[in-house]
Amino acid sequence: MTSLHSPAPWDVRRLPPAEGKNFLVTGGNAGIGYFVAEQLAGTGATVILGSRDAAKAEAAQVSIRARVPGARVRHIRLDLADLSSLKASVDALRLESLDAVVCNAGVLLDQPPRRETKDGNELMFATNHLGHFALTWWLAPLLTAASASRVVTTGSFTAKSESLDLDDLQSTRDYRPKRTYARSKLAQMLFGLELDRRLRAAGSTMLSVLTHPGGALDSLTPSRPPVHSRTTGERLRGLPAGLLLQGKEAAAWSAVRAVLDPSVRGGQLWGPRVFGIRGVPTLEPLRGHLADTDLAARVWTASVGLTGLDPSSGLG
User: Fold this and answer.
1) How high is the pLDDT of residue 316?
2) Active-site residues: which are they?
C-alpha cells in the first residue's frame, strides 16, 4: 500500500509550479535547450535564455510565448567561448537571486581543422566546459542568495566511453572532432560532480546535478516554428528511429526534472530510462571515469589554471 505521504510519481507532462523562481538556460534558444526553457516557462518561473545570437533568442521567445501564454521569458547575450565577457552577461541578468542554471549550451564541430578561442583554448573544450566553469563562478553570489539553488550540468552519453588526457586537455596532439567533443562533455560532467562534493564539504544548501539527454533527433522533434520546423516527410522517415531514440522535447525531460524535482539530490546523474537513450528520466549509477574522484579533482585544478577562477571559492 502506498503511503499517503509518499510523493506522487514524476509526470513529465504535469510539472510542479515554480512561480517566483528564476532559471537561466544556456543555449536556450535552440535544440534541447529550447525545450528545457519552454517546459520551465510552463511552470510560471522566469526563464532567461543565454545565447550569443539575439535574433535566434528572440525567435525562441516568440515560440515559447505562443505555447505558454503569459510566459515570463527573456534573453541575455552569452558567449561561453569568451571568458572576458561573462561578467557583463551575469550583470545583464539584473537579478538578486538565481534558483537554477542549466549548463546546456554546447558546440559540436564535425570536421577539422582544430579551432581556438581568442584566449587560446580549443573551441569545444572552451565552450562546453571552461565557459560553464567560469560562468558558475560569476553566478555564485546569485545562486548563494537563493534557497536550495541548483547547478544542472548537461552531459552526454558519448562521454561515458571516453577518457581524458590531463596532459592534453586541449587536444593539441590528438584532435578528432567527435572525440574532442566527447572529452569536453566528460570534463563538464566531472566538473558537476566535483562541484557537488565541494558544496557538501562547505555545508551549502546548493545542489550540483548531472543529466544527459540520451539520443535526440530533429526528425523526431515536434515543430516549433520559427525555431524548428519538421516536414511530414521528415516525421515519417524518423518513425523507425523512434523505437530507439527520441526527439529533443523528450530529451529535455532529464534537465527539467533535475531543476524542479524536490527528491533530486546533489551528485546524482539523471538520464532517459530506456537503455539511457530514450524515455522518461531516471536515476543512473555513476560508473567508470565518472566515479573517479581523483580525476575530477585534477580536472578542477586544471580548469582553475586555465580560467583563473575557482567556483568553489564563492559557493559556501
Assistant:
1) 58
2) 181
Q: What is the CA radius of gyration of the chain?
A: 18
Quote the CA–CA distance of 185 and 144 in Å, as a whole number: 25
Q: pLDDT (tens digit, 9 = 90+) per residue, 266-300?
A: 999 999 999 899 999 999 999 999 999 999 999 99
Q: Which residues of the chain have pLDDT under 50?
A: 1-4
Which set of grid coordinates corresponds to residue 34?
529550447
Burial class (CB in 10 A: 0-12, 13-18, 19+), 96: exposed
User: pLDDT value at position 61?
Assistant: 97
- Antiparallel, parallel or unpaired: β 100-103 and 22-26: parallel
Residue 251 CB neighbour total at 10 angstroms: 29
**Residue 22 dihedral angles phi and psi, to the nearest 5°:** -120, 125
Query: Rounded to an integer, what distance in angstroms lies between the CA atom of residue 76 and that of residue 93?
Result: 7
Q: For residue 37, give Cα distances in angstroms to 68, 125, 268, 278, 287.
A: 11, 24, 21, 20, 29
- Give me the phi and psi of 211, to 5 degrees please: -140, 165
- The DSSP bridge pattern shows strands 269-274 and 278-284 to be antiparallel
Percent above pLDDT 70 for the chain? 92
Cβ contacts of 89 within 8 Å, gap of 6 or more = 50, 76, 77, 78, 79, 135, 138
C-beta separation of 96 from 142 below 8 A: yes
Distance CA 76, CA 94 (A): 10
Q: For all residues of the chain together, what is the average pLDDT? A: 93
